[in-house]
Design goal:
Keywords: Exonuclease, Hydrolase, Nuclease
CATH class: Alpha Beta
Order of helices and strands: HHEEEHEHEHEHHHH
Largest sheet: 6 strands, mixed
Distance between the termini: 31 Å
CATH architecture: 2-Layer Sandwich
Shape: globular
Structural class: alpha/beta
InterPro entries: DnaQ (IPR006054), Ribonucl_H (IPR013520), RNaseH-like_sf (IPR012337), RNaseH_sf (IPR036397)
GO molecular function: exonuclease activity
Helix content: 40-55%
Oligomer: single chain
Number of domains: 1
Pfam family, one: RNase_T
Protein name: 3'-5' exonuclease
Length: 220
């Protein structure tokens, strides 16, 4: 415990509180694990130059999506790329309740705690968040991460219907799993679509892995 505080003595209290959550082991069974399904809307795909505009997140526990605990954070636009507005629809100086990047990250960390994070093409979303943390002089996220694209592909790996290296878009996954995409391309909307897809994917994988978290992490 002494080494923990010594190592983190220069970090702000909100980061120390976040790291303390990881002193407890995650449950073994999927049904007992808390998942946070997330999506980010950004000004572009350059990890150094572009910025997060919005973070949407959905809480998932005991195989249920908790609508009342949905998170949606809009961040002040210091960087603006008009070319991406047609994708996310967030206009500069739009009348939104926005937070500074630091305020948004503090709220986000308080929300996720030590949950297992889930996203579609998760590498990008997590990398954007980690770069934002780096700008604050903080380490990377400590959470385990699952990618619904990889998990979905695993459900079809023996069907001879796909190229095993195929990268499925969220639209393709939603269509194949009969999920409505009416709220597509908003962070909260995409997080909700991903959460529904995740539950359906896990139900398929559970037939093989007996519902253990470690098997999901191995697939990923």
């Amino acid at each position: 415990m002494i080494s923990f505080f010594k190592k983190n003595k220069n970090h702000p209290d909100f980061w120390k509180d976040y790291e303390r959550k990881f002193q407890h082991k995650l449950p073994e069974l999927i049904q007992d694990v808390r998942f946070v399904v997330l999506d980010t809307e950004t000004t572009g795909f350059d990890l150094k130059k572009d910025r997060i505009l919005c973070i949407g997140a959905v809480n998932l526990e005991h195989n249920n999506i908790e609508i009342s605990r949905t998170l949606e954070l809009y961040i002040d636009q210091e960087t603006f790329n008009p070319d991406t507005v047609k994708i996310h629809g967030i206009i500069k100086n739009e009348d939104l309740n926005t937070l500074t990047e630091r305020e948004a990250l503090v709220t986000f960390l308080n929300y996720i705690e030590n949950a297992v994070l889930v996203a579609h093409h998760a590498q990008f979303d997590i990398a954007m968040i980690n770069h934002a943390l780096k700008r604050l002089g903080l380490p990377k996220l400590k959470n385990k991460v699952l990618d619904t694209m990889v998990l979905y592909r695993a459900t079809r790996i023996n069907s001879n219907l796909i190229d095993q290296n195929k990268h499925y878009s969220l639209d393709e996954v939603a269509e194949n799993l009969n999920i409505s995409v009416k709220d597509r391309h908003t962070a909260a909307g995409d997080a909700m679509i991903t959460a529904i897809a995740f539950l359906k994917i896990v139900a398929k994988l559970n037939k093989k892995d007996k519902g253990k978290l470690k098997h999901l992490l191995q697939v990923n």
